[in-house]
Design goal:
Carbamate kinase; 7 helices; binds uridine-5'-diphosphate
């Protein structure tokens, strides 16, 4: 039995990149989708917020010198591309997914309508939230916190490259250890970067726990959903 009935999974754009320098790596996206399929098979309702950093990031890279809001809208469009790729891969793997966009782009994907999203989840369909919050100056982490709270997810799963929150940067400090769990308040006191400040504050206010784990570790998502010791739980 899954520990969580409904989850909000935040996948960064980089999670689709594999070892490539940018874009979407076919083998990686298929592997990711199969990991998600394993948890839906447990009876867990899954909503995904996908990032766009593998294609375009508003703050850095190609956007240098650009008007910030314009660059951010480009970043949001990048998340729509990832969402379409993800949904199509899910279809190929025999799953039913619906993409819902925070910005109006109706010829391509349906708009985000909360009751519709809830209905899809209840029907056992996967829901992929695209275009972040629909607003510049935000991130897809914030979109994940927002949608997670809106759909009544029991937890937000933040998939990263590192398998949790560490006492120090494990790449720089060999003594660094992983927290199995930590409270929101402790994370603030210790100045640990779990999510960006806006996303973190929203989760804390809404009492939405966060689990940080590595999406590159085979089976980790399933272990998280089963409540096993994996990654770091940030709790109220
Ligand atoms: N973005 C935005 N508003 C949002 C979500 C995303 O403006 O609500 C833009 C922003 O430019 C960001 C880009 O989309 O850099 C890609 O999102 P993010 O960096 O969160 O993607 P990830 O790092 O998860 O791949």
């Amino acid at each position: 039995m899954p520990t969580y009935k409904r989850i909000l999974l935040k996948l960064s754009g980089e999670a689709l990149m594999g070892d490539d320098a940018y874009g979407i790596n076919r083998a990686t996206i298929v592997r990711m989708v199969r990991e998600i399929q394993e948890v839906t098979a447990l009876g867990c309702e899954v909503a995904v917020v996908i990032g766009g950093g593998n294609i375009f990031r508003g703050v850095a890279g190609g956007s240098v010198g650009m008007d910030r809001a314009t660059a951010d809208y480009m970043g949001m469009l990048a998340t729509v591309m990832n969402a379409l790729a993800l949904a199509d891969t899910m279809r190929q793997e025999g799953m039913t997914a619906r993409v819902m966009s925070a910005i109006g782009i109706e010829q391509i994907v349906e708009p985000y309508v909360r009751p519709k999203a809830l209905q899809y989840l209840e029907e056992g369909k996967l829901v992929i939230f695209a275009a972040g919050t629909g607003n510049p100056f935000f991130t897809t982490d914030t979109a994940a916190a927002l949608r997670g709270a809106e759909i009544g997810a029991q937890i937000m799963l933040k998939a990263t490259k590192v398998d949790g929150v560490y006492t120090a940067d494990p790449k720089k400090d060999p003594e660094a250890t992983r927290y199995a769990s930590i409270s929101f308040d402790e994370a603030i006191v210790k100045n640990l970067q779990v999510l960006d400040a806006t996303a973190f504050a929203l989760c804390r206010d809404q009492k939405l726990p966060i689990k940080v784990f590595s999406i590159f570790k085979p089976g980790a998502l399933k272990r998280v959903v089963l409540g096993e010791d994996e990654g770091t739980l940030v709790h109220v």
